[in-house]
Amino acid sequence: MGEGNPSFWPHKDLIDITTLDRDEIALVLETAGRFSEINERPVKKVPILKGKSVVLFFAEPSTRTKTSFDVAGKRLSADTFSLATSGSSLTKGESLKDTALTLESMRPDAIVIRHSRSGAAQFLASRLDCSVINAGDGRHAHPTQALLDAFALSRVWESFEDKNVLIVGDIAHSRVARSDVVLLTKLGARVRLCGPRTLLPSSLESWPVEVHSRLDKACQGVDAIICLRLQLERQAAGLFPDVREYARTYGLGPRHLAEADPGVRVLHPGPMNRGVEIDNELADSGQSLILDQVYAGVCVRMAVLFLLLTRPNQGDGHGRR
Amino acid sequence: MAGVEMLVRSVLWGGRPHDLVVSGGKIVELSPNPVATGSEVELVDGSGLLLLPSMIDAHVHLREPGQEYKEDIASGLGAAAAGGIGRVLAMANTMPVNDQASVTRFMLSQAARSHPNGPFLHPVGALTKGLAGKELAPLMELAEAGCLAFSNDGRPVGDNALFLRALEYASDTGLPVIDHCEDPDLARGGAMNEGRISSLLGLTGIPVTAEALQVARDILLAEYLDLHVHLAHVSCRQAVELIAWAKGRGVRVTAETCPHYLLWDETLVGDYNTRAKVNPPLRTWDDVLAVRQALAEGILDILVTDHAPHADHEKEQTFDDAPFGISGLDTALSLVLGLVKNGFLDMETVMDRFAWRPADIFGLPANRFRPGDPADFFLFDPDLDWKVDERTMRSKGKNTPCLGTELQGRVTRHFLAGKEIFRLQAEDMK
Ligand SMILES: [Zn+2]
User: Fold this and answer.
1) What are the tens digits of pLDDT across the range B279-295?
2) B368 pLDDT band (50/70/90 cuts)?
3) What is the DSSP string of B235-285?
4) Helix, strand, coil fractions of chain A, as percent rounded to 5
5) B426 touching A, CB under 8 A?
6) Minimal Cα distance from A137: which residue of B?
7) What is the per-residue pLDDT for A3?
8) Chain A within 8 Å of B276 (Cβ-Cβ)?
9) pLDDT at residue A85 is higher than 60
């Protein structure tokens, strides 16, 4: 590894899938594919990013995404630092602008940010010279999740053309769904959405998707199904009556898979509410790609860190704009 | 001519040069013919300038008491003077809230101290105690202390029964109620217009229906009680259509809109631009066109700025965390002038909506350039370019989407009762 030539990688930051074109997405997936080999070695470490520092700034808790970035960085020999705890002054009371300036003073080469506010990653990116990687901002975008979903699928599919992908659940509040729709569409797949009207975005007419209200119909002929995590606090907000009714109507079970393509794959960004979004046995079945997604996450995040931190004309990250 | 104090020479009125004669703080004559001068006259050269009546802004937030770092009464009135605005109605969402006479009197005394000759401040009293929407504020006391209207602006009353009683009780004071039209439950948590862009940006939307529902409620209550309700900052087609219907039935509603709803749509929020975060939110282009037409036709009665100054550090946050509001006093007329130059409005309509109609609605004096009218007027250079920035804006709030851009048209001199309250200086330009 290390021979990869990302000489045309033009982006300082990764905020959103919309800013990537099809070739750039292909490059990320291809790079992730080459890095996956490192994860199979007895010594899972290469010196590609030696001397680079990556700050993991998680203002919203997420063990799995943070760990995935941490592992990815360390496998490429980057130094990773965490600023995570909710009690820290970096998240309590201090404005995001001051947090950004504080982070920049630490002279990182990249900041990975998870934040509860839509637009928070872009806010940092427009104010900092270092690379900013969005690890999920509010309900806006989660680009590495979409890339890892595509990577996991790319290992079982030749091509995305003419594939039908269904996303089920709380689309309205899901940054994963937003990024998945953009990415899968760019790769040539057709996307369907299914969920109760209260959990669908209010204006879907401009989205390149088919919308279904009944799960069995939505599953007809699909090649992959992405189940989204249900946030139980949405019930308190009156968006659905109770978990049992949700599970009966929108929980994915074996009978739905009977409607789908025989080779259908099932994905879930985790953590799962087993028995709510997805049937317990289904989650562990041969059709499930859920553990492949976790593996894909490390590969994709290695690729993203590599492409951003080794791009040409990269400043030293120290000068303020 | 005896007793003449000021003669404004060759100033444009109705597209033709006029001479304006002022004496004793009042208009003596506005003549299309050159007026002979005495020796004791202050001569003002008005050539190339428009003569316009001093405007009334019936919806501003001045932040004093409580948040003087955003704006204080002195800086807010300074911005009004520079914008051609001679009277402002200041909303009650100060800290403390203007729900008692002591706050009203404090505001009036601060205004009198910093701007004894105007612009004049007219406090708007809170409709409910603490703006909490639970109990009526002491409206009689507020009226006696000098409030000119009542409003829960910023925190609309969702309880229909309480709002009905507030209208009834306020009617005994003879002062109008101004309602911020937004159903608080439908708008909860919203940061921008609900639609295509909010769904792409992952922001909670405020649907047009939240506004229209409250407008419909107010219309029905105004008709039921046969009382006047003034509808604040109308932003959308649905609301305009409801108001047109109500006026057709003779319901006693009046309504206002702001320059930003005449000019900009939700696309300005684009990349989470917090300077375009305003409540009600910027809507779609179709709504912009509807609001423009309604203002031209008089379905919307008046123009206001909804001047809502904020400090830079407050706007420099994520979109959800940034406060709502656009600073509007400095730029209002320049923005509207763009619509005049494009032929969407004529200048006389603008003056009717920004000076004469608000005077009628809120019972204030106005200058219609008839002999004996108060000499409240300003001179306006419609061709003067200026850059909107930290130095050229008088308001402490630099939170406008046009910050850093060039606008055309600037007030050069502003008089109230014949006394000069603003004169453009070189440093106001660059
Ligand atoms: Zn308001």
Assistant:
1) 999 999 999 999 999 99
2) very high
3) -SHHHHHHHHHHHHTT--EEEEE-HHHHH--GGGGTTT-GGG--SSPP--H
4) 40, 15, 45
5) no
6) B202
7) 45
8) no
9) no
**A131 CA to centre of own chain:** 17
Supply A162's token pair: 């003419």
Distance (angstroms) between ligand 1 centre and the Cα of A191 equals 41
User: Which percentage of chain B shows pLDDT scores above 90?
Assistant: 95
Could you give the angle at which helices A290-309 and A143-154 cross, rounded to 10 degrees? 120
Q: Are the beta carbons of B198 and A96 separated by less than 8 Å?
A: no
B164: enclosing H helix or E strand: helix B160-171
**Residue A22 buriedness (CB in 10 A; 0-12 / 13-18 / 19+):** exposed
Among all residues of chain B, which has the CA nearest to that of A17? B200
Long-range contact pairs involving A2-5 (C-beta distance under 8 Å, separation at least 24) = A2/A46, A2/A48, A4/A31, A4/A34, A4/A306
Residue B209 phi, psi (nearest 5): -60, -30
Given this model, what pLDDT does residue B38 score? 72
Report how far residue B303's alpha carbon sits from residue B290's, in angstroms, rounded to the nearest whole number.
15
Q: How far is B289 from B11, CA to CA, in rounded Å?
A: 33
CA B400-B60-B287 angle, to 5 degrees, is 60
Of B306, B330, B352, B376, the active-site residue reads B306
Contact between A140 and B201 using a beta-carbon 8 Å cutoff: yes
Give the pLDDT band (50/70/90) at residue A1. very low
Q: What is the pTM of this model?
A: 0.92
Q: Across the interface, do A117 and B319 touch by the CB < 8 Å criterion? A: yes
Structure tokens at B376: 């409240």
Backbone angles phi, psi at B111, to 5 degrees: -65, -45
Q: What percentage of chain A carries pLDDT values higher than 90?
A: 79
A282-A287-A291 Cα angle (round to 5): 85
pLDDT of residue B40: 79
Residue A39, C-beta contacts closer than 8 angstroms, at least 6 positions apart: A75, A295, A298, A299
